[in-house]
Amino acid sequence: MLKNKSCPQVVPSLEGLFIEDIAVGCEHVLTLSSTGDVYAWGCNSEGQVTKCSNIKLCTLKFVFTAHQKHCIDCTVVLYVCVPAWSWTLEPRRSSKPIFVQIAKQVVSLNPLELRLPSRAWKVKLVGEGADDAGGVFDDTITEMCQELQSGVVDLLIHTPNSFADVGSNTDRFLLNPAALSEDHMVQFRFLGILMAVAIRTKKPLDLHLAPWVWKQLCSMPLGGPDLEEMIPLDSFVAHSADGRLVPVVSGGQNISLTFANRTEYVERALEYRLHEMDSQVAAIREGMSTIIPVPLLSLLTAQQLEQLVCGLPEVSVEMLKKLVRYRDITESHQLIGWFWQSLEEFTNEERVLFLRFVSGRSRLPSNPADITQKFQIIKVDRPVNGLPTAQTCFFLLRLPPYTSQAILAERLRYSIHNCPSIDMDNYMLTHNTDPADSSDTED
User: Fold this and answer.
1) Residue 364's closest CA among 348, 347, 342?
2) What is the distance between the alpha carbons of residues 290 and 112, in angstroms, rounded to a whole number?
3) Which sign, positive or negative, has the C-alpha torsion 150, 153, 158, 163?
4) Which of 78, 192, 208, 254 has the maximal Cβ count within 10 Å?
5) Concatenated DSSP letters for 1-45?
6) The pTM is what?
7) Which tens digit of pLDDT belongs to each residue from 255-278?
8) Least confident of 281-290, 317-326, 401-410, 426-435
């Protein structure tokens, strides 16, 4: 019987073996030898090294090929039991958006590898110690949604109504009709993959797309009412969705708009505006089709598809209460009452930040039954009135003792506003492990 060790130790069973790759988590370790054998050990009842023999040789060859090529953007590693891809991303301070880094890699994969029920790939962040047991995947999905809607990635644009702040959908986004390069089409296909993965995994995306986009993805016909904006009245040109003045027919800028040709102009302008994003929509549907049966989308309304992909914009406290599981504390404890009172007093924007703090996500599915992971709250023996901590991989919140509800709310607000990203595993283990957990006691 081996004891737990808090510092690195030699693994006698691996002596004499050449190790090609190693993956280290907070509780388990996987190693890949040059002979194609996988060994695993960690937090179990015996502490022994285990050899995995059910790995296909073709998969291992692919791993070795990826390493031999010294691929900069990604490293494919083996994931025991469930086939998953692991991406090595550049540090978050890099000028290359996470969306762009992952898009380039995912679209070239066999779609069969992405049709998983919980996580389609695994993420490694270069320079950061976070080990992806699900939380890093969720967190990077949230960051990619933010990149899309902040202009870091130029696939989306604000609706024309948003510039004048009049009419409907002023807070929504359209597909960028000017994004037509080959790289853009790859990224739009990846956006389609993201949407389909959100449907399969039941983990919604925080995207605010205009109804126009959802209608087109459902193959619903568009009409004049979908535009709801004025068009210039001097020649055969019109403003595109991104504000460019474009001819609606060949040489339209040289054709004066007259009373006699007004009907033709309206028809041409509507035809252009209603189809200016067809290429982008087709690329998204192509990406979705690799994961889900796209023809079935025509059976949905635009609102239904949006709800499947994006879930609920409001974070419901009542839904969280239905999902909660208490550990080392009871529902009747005063601390729990203070916690729920604080969450109910938060604005929805603050509850979104809280959800990301504890899960890496910014939205909940519309159906509570689609949430398979329990929201866990643990009372920890820490200094009074300290800051709460969380583990996104496990949808887990750790609450220290507090002397009042106001202090709990203030500490929780501070944490969700100042800790949007996942911390390093080693730091968290050092600071969030109770002394008794790290002692050399027998397992």
Assistant:
1) 348
2) 8
3) positive
4) 192
5) -PBP-SS----GGGTTPPEEEEEE-SSEEEEEETTS-EEEEESSS
6) 0.67
7) 777 777 777 777 777 777 788 889
8) 426-435
- Could you tell me whether strands 389-391 and 375-379 are parallel, antiparallel, or unpaired per DSSP bridges? unpaired
As a whole number, mean pLDDT of residues 185-192 equals: 96
Give tens-digit pLDDT for 340-387.
Answer: 999 999 999 999 999 999 988 889 998 888 888 899 999 999 889 999
Please give the Cα distance from 201 to 138 (Å, whole number).
11
C-alpha distances in Å from residue 227, one per residue of 161, 270, 272, 395, 441? 10, 9, 11, 41, 69
* Numbers of helices and strands, H then E, in the chain: 14, 14
Query: Is the distance from CB of 324 to CB of 374 less than 8 angstroms?
Result: yes
Q: Which two tokens stand for residue 292?
A: 């889900």
Give the pair of three-digit tokens for residue 365. 């599915």
Other CB atoms within a 10 A radius of the CB of residue 201 amount to 19
pLDDT at 290: 93
Collapsed DSSP state (helix, strand, coil) of residue 390: strand
Please state the three-class secondary structure of 341-387 as a single string.
HHHHHCCHHHHHHHHHHHHCCCCECCCHHHCCCCEEEEECCCCCCCC
Beta pairing partners, 389: 398
Active site residues: 393
Cβ proximity of 124 and 87 under 8 Å: yes
Burial 157-168 (b: 16+ CB within 10 A, else e): bbbbbbeeeeee
> What are the tens digits of pLDDT across the range 306-329?
999 999 889 999 999 999 999 989
Q: Which domains does the chain have, with CATH numbers?
A: 12-62 (no CATH), 77-83+94-229 (3.90.1750.10), 246-299 (no CATH), 317-418 (3.30.2410.10)
